[in-house]
Amino acid sequence: MSSPLLSYPLAATVPATPEAPPHTGGLLLLVDGTAGLLTVAALGIALLLILIIKARLQPFVALLAVSIAVGLAAGLSVTELFGTVQRSTAVSVIESGMGGILGHVAIIIGLGTMLGAILEVSGGAEVLASRLLNLFGEKRAPLAMGLTGLIFGIPVFFDVGIFVLAPIVYAAAKRSGKSILLYCMPLLAGLSMTHAFLPPHPGPVAAAGLLHVQLGWVILMGIVCGIPAVLAAWVYSAWIGKRIFVAVPQDMVEAAAEAKLAVIEEQRAAGVEPREKPVPLGTVLGIIGTPLVLILAATFSSIALDPSTGRSVIEFFGSPFVALTIALLLAYYLLGIRRGWSRKSLETVSTSSLKPVGNILLVVGAGGIFGAVLKASGVAQALSDTFNDVGLPVIVLSYLISVVLRVAQGSATVAIVTTAGIVAPLLAEGHHSQAFVALVIMAISAGSIFASHVNDGGFWMVAKYFGISERDTLKSWTVLESVLSVAGFAVALVLSVFV
Known about the structure:
The protein has 499 residues and is an all-alpha fold. The chain has a domain at 100-239 and 247-353. The chain contains 22 helices and no strands. The radius of gyration is 23 Å and the shape is globular.
């Protein structure tokens, strides 16, 4: 439904992978028929979990190795998997799988990461939290912390949000003398919800690319499913915060002060004078809200408006690439240049922020390879036929598969990209609306955060940053994530009946 003047899709268009040919050229022709392909799928997923959990192999390497093994075992030839050295018409499944998903995801994650870094270094997060604390007062400080995590979590990654906002949690808990759980759990709920349900975070963006859904629908359904989920998590936060007392960790308070001093020194070394005036709250909210409003406007212009020049303009500015670029440029000017930053400083902060992104992109790309191999080899179709015979709705299956993968290996991103590859053929069989597929993505994302425990890096980050014992972390953080997961899935399931 794009305009004839501008046919730029908001969602990824992943190049079609080769259809599964007769298994005549495979290096390891080990299987034949549906039963054999299902065996390959089961062994492949089991091998993936063993490599990540037991062998502690990097998820990118594990996904790549399992993808190759599954493809060869299912009968794909070496040429089909890797292409040929000479130019030919052969399409490499590995290249098309990785290139198709990263062509969309890499740009969005890169722009989102740089935007978050500028907001972090400029003090936007600190201003947001401080203003909300002053607005709500001491009695409602937990709610203020929750809203801080919810708003600031949109443009920044989960771990960055903890690093930036933890000192504010320490201050609020120390001032009140109450358990730090009462303040950190609402904050973590907001950060976790946005990380799981909303672009530009890797999970929902990757799933949107793999399942060909416009990001506007993902944002809308993420808000609709995520808000009730985070409200349920806040209720649990208030309950557990009154029953388990955890003192403010003094060592982390001191470390936070040292980190803040280090940031100031780094700013000075980069030629940036430390800020004298706080960033206006309206500026922070405006920068965060700009890409969301533009993307949503473009998504629904295709429904509400007939093809026209006006709709083309809206779709142009609402494409994720353009919308995030506009937000980043606004941040550069309003939070940087306008406040005395040099262009060199902006470059330094932006470049530094991209260093941790490489691992995320490689894992997402390898997940795209896994999905492409499943499709090209016929394994995905065999899984689709089997799941159809089970009789469970696809949205329920998506959630259950994601939960199993999450609990087994710990990584939410791996759970999302693997589940999306498995359920893609189930969705391809029917004529599902964009809204329904976006709800399936919400179910997958909800499953990917269920029961964070000792095999999840986030578990240890929460425990160490806020001085919580392992047992109390299981009682608080692990249950909090499960509440978010179940509540978000419940909303998605109910809505799926109507769309």
